[in-house]
Amino acid sequence: MELKVLNKEGKATAKKVKLNAGVFGIEPNDHAIYLDVKQYLANQRQGTHQSRERGEIIGSTRKIKKQKGTGTARAGSIKNPLFRGGGRVFGPRPRNYGFKLNKKVKSLARKSALTYKAKEEGILIMEELTFKTPKTKDFTTILKNLNVVNDRTLFVTSEKDQNTILSTRNLKNTKVITADKLNTYDILNSVKLIISESAVSQIENQFKA
């Protein structure tokens, strides 16, 4: 697949980029995509949730009523989980939700996501993005020129540029990442994947078999 390289005005230049079929044209594996997205979302969870069990509740240890003769169940502590304000039984404890996923599965998932995006014609190749100073207005103009101002867009650059990141920080539908941080979730979550010309070769070298 060949794509024309676009400039900041949204116009096609004389340059073209040929996408590697081994990265952008494989047989997609949906299960690999599921596993990679599941791991990504699991890693976003803090896992700091915790509730107090009866041994952690602050309260009197006095026996609240006599053992026999009340006609109701015996109760030895106000911290009993059956009472209001008591401890919780089997409540959540701090834990790590992450799990291991093989590198080959991750690579397959990301190539599958890129293939889906290529089939949907959701990939645009663009000249290098450079900003002398952070300017959200200038970046919004680029989005309008590319006709993606209302779409969720993912910009993939070859190198981290702080001015570009700051220019997009207030745009809720736009995200900028470097090629080495490209992941399955962000690819599929975007409507348009906009890759800088130099980042294409980085992606192909990263995911090629």
Quick recap:
By secondary structure, the protein is of the alpha/beta class. It has helices at residues 21-24, 30-44, 103-119, 136-145, 162-168, 184-189, 197-207, and strands at residues 2-6, 12-18, 123-126, 153-157, 174-178, 192-196. It has 2 domains: 2-45 and 99-207, Ribosomal protein L4/L1 (Ribosomal Protein L4, Chain: A), CATH 3.40.1370; 51-91, no CATH class.
Strand order, main sheet: write it out.
2-1-3-6-4-5
- Unreliably modeled segments: none
The CATH class name of the largest domain reads: Alpha Beta
Helix count, per DSSP? 7
* CATH homologous superfamily caption of the largest domain: Ribosomal protein L4/L1
The tally of structural domains comes to 2
Radius of gyration: 27 Å
Helical proportion, percent range: 25-40%
The CATH topology label of the largest domain is: Ribosomal Protein L4, Chain: A
Structural class, please? Answer: alpha/beta
What is the second-level CATH architecture of the largest domain? 3-Layer(aba) Sandwich
Q: Overall 3D geometry?
A: elongated
Distance between the termini: 18 Å
Strand content: 5-15%
Quick one: biggest sheet? 6 strands, mixed
Total count of strands: 6
Order of helices and strands: EEHHHEHEHEHEH
The mean pLDDT is 91
